User: Fold these one by one.
Assistant:
Number 1:
Amino acid sequence: MSRPGRPHVGIRADASPSIGVGHVVRCLALAEELLERGCTVTIFGSVTVDWLAAPLERLAIEVVAAPDAPEALTSLLVEQGVDALVIDGYDIDARLGATARTAGLVVLAFHDGDFGAAQEADIHLDQNFGAVLHHSASSGAISLAGLDHALFRREVLDLADLPHADHAVPTVLAVFGGTDPNSAAEVVVPLLLATGLPLDLTCVVARPDLREAVDALPRAEGQSVTTIAPTPDVMRLAASSTVTLSAAGSSIWELLHLGVATGIVAVADNQEASYREVIDSGVAAPIGLLSELRRSEAARADAKATLRRLLDDPAYREDLGHRGRRLVDGKGRARVADVLLTTLGDRPD
């Protein structure tokens, strides 16, 4: 429940081993900003990824089960005293935004290109590089598009100010989403090891079978591999690494802001447009589309060549880091919170 005089913002988002954590993590960045401004924040949904328990507890954010039906959820939101609703998820009923607005709530809806764009909202947010204004902007809704609105957690903003460590043997962090639901590690890590170059790899794996597969991979002299469970400290690990290999989801904006030399792979259809925009801009190294890496020897050969360059070319890594840092200023969460709270304040009583 909200406290008197404090705006109460509800977030409709889920995180699970099959869905991943991206929706909830970027919502947590916005939640941090809203909490710092005196709001109450509640998540309505399901969060079943263990490592998210720590940041939720630290922020004192309650997670409340969300009914599937928009009408039932809206009734719950009104009962809980929610003033504004943030919607982030591709499989959430597309009627929710309209239903919540009819009940008097201000609605902010995330989307990634066409994914999630069907929600009716007062504010549409696509934080991806090269994003275009939502079509409803012409009818009075507010559209926020592009990296000026990328949302970063406080941890990432603080890490961006730390100097990068220098390693005699390149250290590599491989993290393909918070839970790697598409098993990208079993495809990309063998290509990395096939370069034959010395490296110290830390690979984030969520499932025992994937951990066993990575641990069993052959490695050349001078190569070490450590597998770890998903952790809230992943960005701290990235900030201290020579190279990070990542899925092309929302975490890449955090990595670019940190100035980490990053190789990216599109692990799902909804990441392909963003992947191409980032690669075309020259701020990250192209590992490829996961679907092509699985079936094409030519794609795997190109990926190995890129991975070899990342490991063996310090000037290339430095250039990528500088380009990424210049692209993302880290002020997106403040901009989005400004718009949300202004819209909420302008709402008729």
Number 2:
Amino acid sequence: MDDGIPFWGSKFRVRPMAMPELRKDPLVERWILVSTDRLGRPQELAEPESMESTDPCPFCAGNEHLTQGAVLTVPDESGRWRIRVVPNLFPAMRDVGAFQPKRQGLHLGGAGTGIHEVIVEAPQHERHFANLPPGHISDVFRAYAARISHVRSDARWRYPVVFKNSGAAAGASLEHVHSQLVLTPHVPPEIEAELRGSQNHFQQTGRCFFCDLIEQERAGPRFVMESSHYFVYMPFAGRFPFELCVLPRSHCSHFDRQPSETWNDLGATLSDVLNGLRTGLEEPPYNYVIHTMPLSEPESAHFHWHVEIIPRLNNIGGFEWGTGCNINTVPPEQAAAFLREMVRQRN
């Protein structure tokens, strides 16, 4: 793409739209605005990149004494750990018993009880998750599933939030590859909205919204790639430039209950997508988060677990905070075509 507006690195340029577009997410009924007009404006202010590189690194092999004891280790062929799950030394929530909310007039609240763990994804000091072999990436996701399955019977926790912050702009404070798991006593509003939307679709059609979405997007302009077991596309009403969704092709509502034969393909799919982003956008910061059914819920015919990947390529300003309507400066169709080519070149 030789003409157009420069965007995040030297390889991708945005073709200006004839007119901004308001788009509505069909699942959660959230409006967003796609507008290339916001690109190319003067930018005097910049937020400095700041991510801590500690010496010694608490996540490197040999420095295990700098963290709490592991609750799970995944060994390599020699018996040394290759993935290590530890309690977070700086937890957002604390395991102090069951959540007991109290009402104070109009307000409802209680102690922030929960479990917060760190998944150390490699023993060596690796900065980029995409550098790990696909099989290793698969094992990281297996470790997530193992921890979720382990706590499923504890009625105190309703939802497992699995997420990665990669890069300072995405919220990371340490550069050694890691991700996090937070077990909460409530279901997050974003998940509740997806559950409502998918249930409404099922009641109206008798079909899973996500399964229908895969069929619609497969031949469309927002398709990115498809593997034996997974489907990747960019949402029609994506809130952020290059926002991605990774879905299992076969219906499954609980992330930790997916068929065993699909794990290796998940690692390979994520490796392709993350390396495509890394090559095309020159190592962008990003988050990913797993959306799954709440822990106590049975298998669902209307919900489909998935991974959202959100590159952090723009800032949230007053318009977004004041309206709840994000401005996406890159049409998903253009972003998908570019990333599709990056993945094709990789393979």
